[in-house]
Amino acid sequence: MGSANKTGSSADRRARIEEMRRAERARERRNRIVTVAASVVVVAGLAVGGVVLLQSQSGDKASAASDDKGSGRFVTGADGVRTWKGTLGRTHTSKTVSYPMEPPVGGDHNPVWQNCNGDVYTKPVNNMNAVHSLEHGAVWVTYDSKAPKADVDALTAKVRKTPYTLMSPVEDQKDPIMLSAWAHQRTVKSASDPAVDAFFAQFVQGSQTPEPGAACTGGLGQ
Question: Where do the TM regions start and end (predicted)?
């Protein structure tokens, strides 16, 4: 009887050991599966991250390209009017726009236009609002501190009686008195220069206007 009990105990022990070994092998298999799955997730995450990074970089490049809408140059005609040869953006933005010319003759601009119904401003106006006025077909008369007072007074009187015009000081411009319309600009010698009337006649609501008939009131005043 003692021998039988001993044999039974040994068999039970071997059975328990084998069961423990099977359990251990099962745990090892599960661990390997978990490890492989985790590796796949990590690799997939890195791949997705790489794609997102590339898309982000591509988007940055695209944004940089879209900001370069003002690239181009002026070509001066026989009449002294300089015409901008290049693309001028027309996107509305609340961000500051850097224009390739001063005063600007077009490009992306603020959603609100500067009032231009014969409005005369004694202080500088925001370029982004004035460009919107040009989009509506206005002529923008600008002058710096070198412009004679008599010319400033005479131009003030002319602008005040002419719809779709505005006037303001611009200290950084290259000449004392300048006239600007969408994609067009010129310098004049004085208020009595015949080129002033010619520019007004051609460009106040002229054929260059991107939005003819759009309002010049109800915008931004000073």
Answer: 33-54
Identify the DSSP state of 116. Answer: -
**CB neighbours of residue 39 within 10 Å:** 10
Contacts (Cβ under 8 Å, ≥6 apart) of 171: 124, 144, 145
What is the torsional sign of CA 211, 212, 217, 220?
A: positive
Q: What dihedral angle (degrees, nearest 10) is formed by the CA atoms of 73, 77, 81, 87? A: -30
Residue type, 47: A
Which pLDDT tens digit goes with each residue over 180-205? 999 999 999 999 999 999 999 999 99
CB atoms within 10 A of CB 63: 10
Q: Please say whether the dihedral angle defined by the alpha carbons of residues 133, 138, 139 and 144, taken in this order, is positive or negative.
A: negative
β-partners of residue 142 are: 168, 178
Contact 210, 124 (CB under 8 A): no
DSSP string, 21-56: HHHHHHHHHHHHHHHHHHHHHHHHHHHHHHHHHHHH
Question: Domain-by-domain residue ranges, the chain?
Answer: 1-66, 72-203
Tens of pLDDT, residue by residue over 137-168, are 999 999 999 999 999 999 999 999 999 999 99
- Cα gap 168→121, rounded to integer Å: 5
Strand boundaries in 132-208, DSSP class E: 139-143, 165-169, 177-181, 184-187
